[in-house]
């Protein structure tokens, strides 16, 4: 048994009092409790995050293939990170950056906003430490992305042919009915009607190109499906349960093969970390064509946050827009307008 237990050191106090000094061994957190003793000897060992993951898990992140070993035996990784994440990565007065460095025993270099490079540099003595920092940065970026507004969406254009013509007809009929609280500002422009298959947060050109690559990786999902997809657009529904207080009114879309592709495509993009929060929290895509949305109103705040759709559903609830074919899926920029009145298209998956 340790002599420190049988004959512990004592500390003399005033008035002839003597107290035993308890020794906290390293096996029981000595670095934490005896930190002052360590520092007095010139040793300052910081807390290191325990590695709960095996090396096999690191291999799932393609970035680990870019880890370089320098001639002196150190390891380095240049990790692309959009500048929009720099503030969150650095933290208040550098607190987040320091925490990651201390827990993973690494050094991080975050470029300044005016630098051309978008690469965060991770340096460490061991490869496993670089991997640990990489995981922490990935988790942090995922958390920060959830708080950001969507920038792009995956769309099927419906702004042509029979569906567009019938939509124009329906819009005219509704406006001619002069229903209370219904005006032209509520309607989706006929050049922009579409079906949304996914919503994403893409913060720089690298992420946009990556999203297009992920979209192309979805091409094998089409192998067992009949393309182009046949879509039947018929009937009106609302997003909420109260038709007297409606925010969005849409046309129903029926297309079994497109539904399969949309759900599989959703699952694929959920694994990329590029999805907006809404897409990460759902298991299936609701096929619909938005027709009226209270957000389109310029005076939305003055007109209230909803409109009364009861009479519209009563008169036009079974409206038939006809059929359309889906021959491509487009990655579009939200709140944009292209030359043909549709959204600006970043890239497409054609089939």
UniProtKB/TrEMBL annotation:
Acidic residues compositional bias, start-end: 49-61
UniProt GO BP: DNA alkylation repair; regulation of DNA-templated transcription
SUPFAM superfamilies (UniProt xref): Eukaryotic type KH-domain (KH-domain type I) (SSF54791), LigT-like (SSF55144)
Keyword terms, alphabetized: RNA-binding
Stretches the record annotates as Disordered: 30-61
An example Gene Ontology molecular-function term: RNA binding
GO CC term, one of those recorded: nucleus
Domain of life per record: Eukaryota
UniProt domain K Homology: residue ranges: 73-142
UniProt xrefs under PANTHER family: ACTIVATING SIGNAL COINTEGRATOR 1 COMPLEX SUBUNIT 1
Descriptive protein name: Activating signal cointegrator 1 complex subunit 1
């Amino acid at each position: 048994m340790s002599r420190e237990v049988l004959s512990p050191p004592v500390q003399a106090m005033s008035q002839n009092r003597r107290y035993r000094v308890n020794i906290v061994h390293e096996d029981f957190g000595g670095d934490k409790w005896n930190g002052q003793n360590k520092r007095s000897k010139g040793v300052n060992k910081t807390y290191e995050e325990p590695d709960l993951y095996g090396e096999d898990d690191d291999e799932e992140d393609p970035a680990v293939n870019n880890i370089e070993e320098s001639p002196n035996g150190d390891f380095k990784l240049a990790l692309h990170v959009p500048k929009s994440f720099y503030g969150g990565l650095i933290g208040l007065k550098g607190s987040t950056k320091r925490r990651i460095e201390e827990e993973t025993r690494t050094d991080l270099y975050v470029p300044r906003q005016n630098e051309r490079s978008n690469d965060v540099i991770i340096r460490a003595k061991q490869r496993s430490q670089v991997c640990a920092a990489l995981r922490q940065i990935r988790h942090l970026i995922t958390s920060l992305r959830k708080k950001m507004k969507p920038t792009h969406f995956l769309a099927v254009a419906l702004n042509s042919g029979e569906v567009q013509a019938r939509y124009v007809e329906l819009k005219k009929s509704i406006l001619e009915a002069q229903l209370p609280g219904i005006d032209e500002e509520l309607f989706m422009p006929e050049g922009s009607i579409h079906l949304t298959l996914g919503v994403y947060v893409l913060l720089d050109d690298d992420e946009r190109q990556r999203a297009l690559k992920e979209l192309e990786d979805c091409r094998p999902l089409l192998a067992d499906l009949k393309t182009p997809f046949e879509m039947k657009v018929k009937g009106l529904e609302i997003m909420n349960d109260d038709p007297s207080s409606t925010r969005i009114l849409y046309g129903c879309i029926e297309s079994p093969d497109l539904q399969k592709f949309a759900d599989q495509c959703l699952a694929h993009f959920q694994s990329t970390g590029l999805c907006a929060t809404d897409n990460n929290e759902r298991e299936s895509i609701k096929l619909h064509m938005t027709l009226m949305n209270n957000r389109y109103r310029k005076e939305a705040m003055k007109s209230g946050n909803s409109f009364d759709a009861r009479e519209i559903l009563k008169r036009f609830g079974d409206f038939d827009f006809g059929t359309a074919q889906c021959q491509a899926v487009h990655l579009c920029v939200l709140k944009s307008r292209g030359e043909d009145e549709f959204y600006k298209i970043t890239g497409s998956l054609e089939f």
